[in-house]
Amino acid sequence: MGCRQSQHVALSEDPLMKKENVTENTADTTRDIALPPTDGSAPPEPSKSPGKKRGVWGQGAELYKLLESEIQHRSSSSSAFWSSIIQFCDRVPGAAGYFSPKDMTTPLHLACQLIDNSDIGPAPEEQSTALDGVRALITACPEAVIRHDITGHPPLHYAFINPGILFPRNNIRIEVIKLITASDLELSMTYLSRNDINYGESGGRTALYHIIDSLDDDMSNDGASCEFVQSIHVLNPSMLGVRNASDGDCPLSLLYRRFVRQFDSSEKFFPGDNSRPEVVKHREAYKVAAMNSFRIIDQLLRPTGDNGATKNGQFRLVHNASKVDCPPDLFRYIVETHVDQVTEVEEVTGRLPLHIAAMAGSTQK
């Protein structure tokens, strides 16, 4: 991989350190830029030419400062801002390979953090978004996807940091995560398979668990949270039953507690007249939130990519819950609300949920 060349950029053939020697406007103005090592070791110092004007390294620093300033000022990143980033990458592709000597973060690390600053309103097709900016940075320097900062995190990590606000920001977040994952599947799967990722003060956990834990209560009728969590889940379905290294909790346990809390709030009694509009509104909102949380549980327990029935026949929630390390309280609730499925057998295997649970238990041991 490496950074895309502009008409003024020539990449060296050194396999251990990719550098770009740049001549601007045919003047004797050169400067080398080297991407940081991927193993977390100290980055090499950029070569310096006394008396020379800025080269790709200097322009990379300028691109970095544009993104850094946007984060520091917590401004709403507009279409015009992302257009300027795209134009910068088109003009000087090598600038996307810059890294901060202080913490080894690249412009791509910063761009992923700016998903939360994106304009909230849905952008017309001709307007640029954070997704377009991230795509431009990756196109200019594909190798930036695998670069780790001083804390050991790749850019993908920062796309997961703060997904509390649902949509439309998270539809961009989903696409950014998919884009980075597709750019380097091996690195992304390594990251998504970890259960010890540190998100601030949360301790070591899985990316799927963090996404669920960070979501606001979804009181929308379109159930945006369900689509969002499912989009993350399908990237690595095997993580559904994986427990956090820090506290031993798992995504299904977290979701069931979320569901119970929301359901209890929908049944809450207040002093005075409980037919008041504000009380009714409160109950209805939490009822919708609880329904959305259980929809997430239902979707996560379905075979990946399945929209209703499995290849073997009808989808049964009890049977699928029996196949995974389902929390006892959640499994009990599923059985109580789907009693008819307890005595039903799978069409192909002829197995009851009890048989499936017994086999799953022996496998997990």
What does this protein look like?
- This protein is 45% helix and 3% strand.
- The protein is mostly helical.
- The protein has 3 domains: 1-164, no CATH class; 193-300, no CATH class; 319-365, no CATH class.
- Strand 1 (9-11) and strand 2 form a beta hairpin.
- The protein is globular and about 75 Å long.
- Mean pLDDT is 81; it is low at 7-32, 44-53 and 306-311.
Brief sketch in words of this structure:
Residues 1-56 are annotated as: Disordered. The model is unreliable at 7-32, 44-53 and 306-311 (pLDDT under 50).
Can you give keywords for this protein?
365 residues, mainly alpha, 3 domains, two-stranded antiparallel sheet
The proportion of strand residues reads under 5%
Instruction: Tell me, briefly, the overall form.
Output: globular
Biggest sheet, strands in spatial order? Answer: 1-2
SS content category: mainly alpha
The arrangement of helices and strands along the chain is EEHHHHHHHEEHHHHHHH
Q: Show unreliable segments.
A: 7-32, 44-53, 306-311
Helix content: 40-55%
Radius of gyration: 25 Å
In total, the number of domains comes to: 3
> What is the end-to-end distance?
42 Å
Instruction: Work out the helix count.
Output: 14
**Largest beta-sheet details:** 2 strands, antiparallel
Provide mean pLDDT, rounded.
81
List the SSEs and their pairings.
Layout: E1 9-11, E2 20-22, H1 56-72, H2 79-91, H3 107-113, H4 130-140, H5 155-159, H6 169-183, H7 185-192, E3 197-198, E4 204-205, H8 207-214, H9 224-233, H10 251-266, H11 277-300, H12 317-323, H13 328-337, H14 353-364
Antiparallel strand pairs: 1-2, 3-4
Helix pairs in contact: 1-3, 2-4, 3-4, 4-6, 6-7, 9-11, 10-11, 12-14
